[in-house]
TrEMBL record:
Pfam families: CADH_Y-type_LIR, Cadherin. GO terms for biological process: adherens junction organization; calcium-dependent cell-cell adhesion via plasma membrane cell adhesion molecules; cell migration; cell morphogenesis; cell-cell adhesion mediated by cadherin; cell-cell junction assembly; homophilic cell adhesion via plasma membrane adhesion molecules. PANTHER family: CADHERIN-23, CADHERIN-7. Gene3D superfamilies: Cadherins (2.60.40.60), TCF3-CBD (Catenin binding domain) (4.10.900.10). GO terms for cellular component: adherens junction; catenin complex. Its main location: membrane. It is a single-pass type I membrane protein. The keyword Transmembrane applies. This is CADH7 protein. The gene is Cdh7. One of its GO terms (molecular function) is calcium ion binding.
Length: 716
């Protein structure tokens, strides 16, 4: 309540309130100065309110005292429970931890005033998780309460922690949270094989590096604590087998290191040890952290292919060897106990030219053709060995046959030389250095000897000097070479090799006489250059030839176009080809029109047809007259008529080589209704009787009306 000393209680003073929450939260009775709260206050939302009050004269509305300021403090009550703002919690602790090992700390907050009473004083307790864990009441630290908790027995625990204010007294508010505690693994379990011994059967044909077996030592630990290594510590298969670890499954993988042979050894025994890689010294008393087992491997017999005594045979033979010469022998045997006989053959895919043969029983390899080292110096062939009792079992042996060289190739020029000599060359001038090659390959290398042939030894133009290093030099013997006198010289050179017996060849060196510049570089080597006109260059000659060729092509084109115009392949529509084209869009002139067709041919079939030449081509051979058609059946008449036309077209040399449409205006005879053509009526006074048309029905009514004679016609 606010009260002014000026207030006499007569109602002349009124009180007003301003500031935080005035009129909304706090109101004042303007007559008495009593201040009231209009709604429930929450200290946790706002703990203090600053207000200003003033006493005014009711009549003048002027202050009777200075404005005063006061603070309203909200007194706290316990209306907020503790809350775990970071919950729920997850934590981990190693298994086998001692009692009192800290796991995690939980914290609850209370929104009440910690300075007033016990509303914000919190204590912690565990509602679920005993007797394994405990919690510090004041700090909220969770600790282990039992020793030797084993992850392999139970690896996860769910705890419920309570926080209660008012120091845990009755009437206090509380909140809870959950804590999930996981026991982490430690290496407290040694590996153990489920069995003391294992046995596996494997075929002897199993390839090297194949997996024989997988074994695993059980370890209840996980992760790095379960990682193991395996090794063969004893047994008779130390060099034949090896064991490695599968990093994903921690299995020991036994594989083959050497080929198995049932005939040599039928079984192997291995002592295998499995040990943890990461041992915790705290738990050595639970050890040892390793285990042993025995693995017995039984080798099973299989039918194996023949085996050669050597994987690769190396043989040599001279290229001069005759057909049938023995080169060498291969040998193979059946490794099985049955020791089946073996037959040999050559894989012809490796000897396509069939240079070699092999004896099927003895394995002796001989030559089947003449050999040439220069074509193929080494032959690599595959020999097949097949069991007689089981041909499907085939062994393979490899033979490398080296061909020894003989001196069977004469030396020759190393290249095609283009030798020139200048017209102003001096005696003794070097114009060419030559060398030789030989396809043979002597063991001590080549040695060639050069000389001029006997007929060229005394020539007056050139000489040859052997350099004794498998090269020779060609020199001039005189000067004054002239192209007009002789433009080309041919110098035969004799080359001998050092083989035994030695071989020789004569090679001709072509030497051209050229016009050279001051540096001795050839400029022109053709003698014909002197004959050309002085002012006519090579480019001009080429241009003239091009013009002549162009004119010839134009003439040929003109001639071809003219010939095509003379022999048209398509008929002209305007031509009068009466027997080929019938125009149906023209009515014609009736009976009086006798220009378009030969009326006699239509009236009478039994007339002589004159030979007519084709109008679409110019005939060169006149044909014989056609035979006269007699009164014979229509099918024969038509057949003979068409046959004559066909024969005429076939033998006509001027006819174009393509089929053409042939239209024949040919009626025939023998119709039941006789001829209906009006072309036979030469005049209107025809004596032919058409009364029978009335008997043919409505379709012929029009004709009956036109040609009928009697007024009593059926349809008149």
């Amino acid at each position: 309540q606010l009260h002014s000393d000026v207030d006499k209680g007569d109602g002349s003073i009124k009180y007003i309130l301003s500031g935080e929450g005035a009129s909304s939260i706090f109101i004042i009775d303007e007559n008495t100065g009593d201040i009231h709260a209009t709604k429930r206050l929450d200290r946790e939302e706002q703990a203090y309110y600053t207000l200003r009050a003033q006493a005014l004269d009711r009549l003048t509305n002027k202050p009777v005292e200075p404005e005063s300021e006061f603070v309203i403090k909200i007194q706290d009550i316990n209306d907020n429970e503790p809350k775990f703002l970071d919950g729920p919690y997850t934590a981990g602790v190693p298994e086998m931890s001692p009692v009192g090992t800290s796991v995690v700390q939980v914290t609850a907050t209370d929104a009440d005033d910690p300075t007033y009473g016990n509303s914000a004083r919190v204590v912690y307790s565990i509602l679920q998780g005993q007797p394994y864990f405990s919690v510090e009441p004041k700090t909220g630290v969770i600790k282990t309460a039992l020793p030797n908790m084993d992850r392999e027995a139970k690896d996860q625990y769910l705890l419920v922690i309570q926080a209660k204010d008012m120091v845990g007294q009755n009437g206090g508010l509380s909140g809870t949270t959950s804590v999930t505690v996981t026991l982490t693994d430690v290496n407290d379990n040694p590996p153990r094989f489920p069995r003391r011994s294992y046995q596996y059967n494997v075929p002897e044909s199993l390839p090297v590096a194949s997996v024989v077996a997988r074994i695993k030592a059980a370890d209840a630990d996980v992760g790095p604590n379960a990682e193991m290594e395996y090794k063969i510590v004893d047994g008779d298969g130390l060099g034949v087998f090896k064991i490695s670890v599968d990093k994903d499954t921690q299995e020991g993988i036994i594989t083959i290191q050497k080929e198995l042979d049932f005939e040599a050894k039928t079984s192997y025994t291995l002592r295998i040890e499995a040990a943890n890689m990461h041992v915790d010294p705290r738990f050595l008393s639970l050890g040892p952290f390793s285990d042993m087992t025995t693995v017995k491997i039984i080798v099973e017999d299989v039918d194996e292919p023949p085996v050669f005594t050597s994987r690769l045979y190396s043989m040599v033979v001279s290229e001069a060897a005759k057909v049938g010469t023995i080169i060498g022998t291969v040998a193979a045997h059946d490794p099985d106990a049955s020791n089946s006989p073996v037959r040999y053959s050559i894989d012809r895919n490796t000897d396509l030219e069939r240079y070699f043969n092999i004896d099927a029983n003895s394995g002796v390899i001989t030559t089947a053709k003449s050999l040439d080292r220069e074509t193929n110096a080494v032959h690599n062939i595959t020999v097949l060995a097949m069991e007689s009792q089981n041909p499907a079992q085939i062994g393979r042996g490899y033979v490398a046959i080296t061909i020894l060289d003989i001196n069977d190739n004469a030396p020759e020029f190393a290249m095609e030389y283009e030798t020139t000599v200048c017209e102003n060359a001096q005696p003794g001038q070097v114009i060419q250095k030559i060398s030789a090659i030989d396809k043979d390959d002597p063991p001590n290398g080549h040695q060639f000897y050069f000389s001029l042939t006997a007929e060229a030894a005394n020539n007056h133009n050139f000489t040859l000097q052997d350099n004794k290093d498998n090269t020779a030099t060609v020199l001039t013997k005189r000067n004054g070479f002239r192209r007009q006198e002789q433009s080309v010289f041919y110098l035969p050179i004799f080359i001998v090799d050092s083989g035994s017996p030695s071989l020789s060849s004569t090679n001709t060196l072509t030497i051209r006489v050229c016009d050279c510049d001051a540096d001795g570089i050839a400029q022109t080597c053709n003698a014909e250059a002197y004959i050309l006109p002085a002012g006519l260059s090579t480019g001009a000659l080429i241009a003239i030839l091009a013009c002549v060729l162009t004119l010839l092509v134009l003439v040929l084109l003109i001639v071809t176009m003219r010939r095509r115009k003379k022999e048209p392949l398509i008929f002209d529509e305007e031509r009068d080809i009466r027997e080929n084209i019938v125009r149906y869009d023209d009515e014609g002139g009736g009976e009086e029109d006798t220009e378009a067709f030969d009326m006699a041919a239509l009236r009478n079939l039994n007339i002589m047809r004159d030979t007519k030449t084709r109008r679409d081509v110019t005939p060169e051979i006149q044909f014989l007259s056609r035979p006269t058609f007699k009164s014979i059946p229509d099918n024969v008449i038509f057949r003979e008529f068409i046959w004559e036309r066909l024969k005429e077209a076939d033998v006509d040399p001027c006819a174009p080589p393509y089929d053409s449409l042939q239209t024949y205006a040919f009626e025939g005879n023998g119709s039941v209704a006789e001829s209906l053509s009006s072309l036979d009526s030469i005049s209107s006074n025809s004596d032919q009787n058409y009364d029978y048309l009335s008997d043919w029905g409505p379709r012929f009514k029009r004709l009956a009306d036109m040609y009928g004679t009697g007024p009593d016609c059926l349809y008149s």
